[in-house]
Amino acid sequence: LTQDGLKKLAADKAVDYVKSGMVLGLGTGSTAAFVVDKIGGLLKSGELKDIIGIPTSKRTEEQARSLGIPLTTLDDHPLLDLAIDGADEVDPGLNLVKGRGGALLREKMVEAASKSFVVVVDESKLVSGLGGSKLAMPVEVVQFCWKYNLVRLQDMFKELGCEAKLRVNADGKPYVTDNFNYIVDLYFETPIKDGLGAGKEIGKLEGVVEHGLFLDMATAVIIAGKTGVEVKSK
Ligand code: DER
């Protein structure tokens, strides 16, 4: 099975948790896109009814709209039944790194407002410690003096061999999130030991809007691997 095949397998399993009448958080990224596709199909076939979705990004909103999934917002539905989304890293305690797709702020707002939050990943996302993939741990920062905050973030984690980079588009211009902010990506040599502490410290920095550590938020993680699909829950 290709990685996409595994993502689709995890996505299909997650949709079993969706019941008619639910208010759903719709995730962002390639795995979440399979979930949104499947929900659209079940609504069309009538197997699912009375679903209303809250998208976690403009691109998920567009995908959901094109599938005819009725949409709402946190303003009108501050409590959701279930959110389903992908992740970039999953540690043994089901803590996550998310945000490489740039949607971390809206994802965290929606997923924190959901009674259940089911994560869908292929086995390549499993890590022993957060930051362990040596890939980006994103932090959303205001555009104003973004460099000042990039330096403060890099210094904060210098013992972990952290390197901070402003996320840019292919044309070299800064990536701008749906919320008109920038993203500073943190790359760690050594994984983060105390995720809770790290999250708290990052959150204290004035001008930092949100970070990609989703700690103690997932209620279940669906992992698709060579040997099949496994569900890990809290
Ligand atoms: O950016 C995000 O948070 C995405 O959900 C990401 O974590 C997973 O994206 P993928 O399913 O395309 O790997």
TrEMBL record:
It comes from the Eukaryota. Keywords: Isomerase. The keyword Isomerase applies. This is Ribose 5-phosphate isomerase A. It comes from Melia azedarach (Chinaberry tree). The lineage of its organism: Eukaryota, Viridiplantae, Streptophyta, Embryophyta, Tracheophyta. The chain holds residues 43 to 276 of 276 of the full protein.
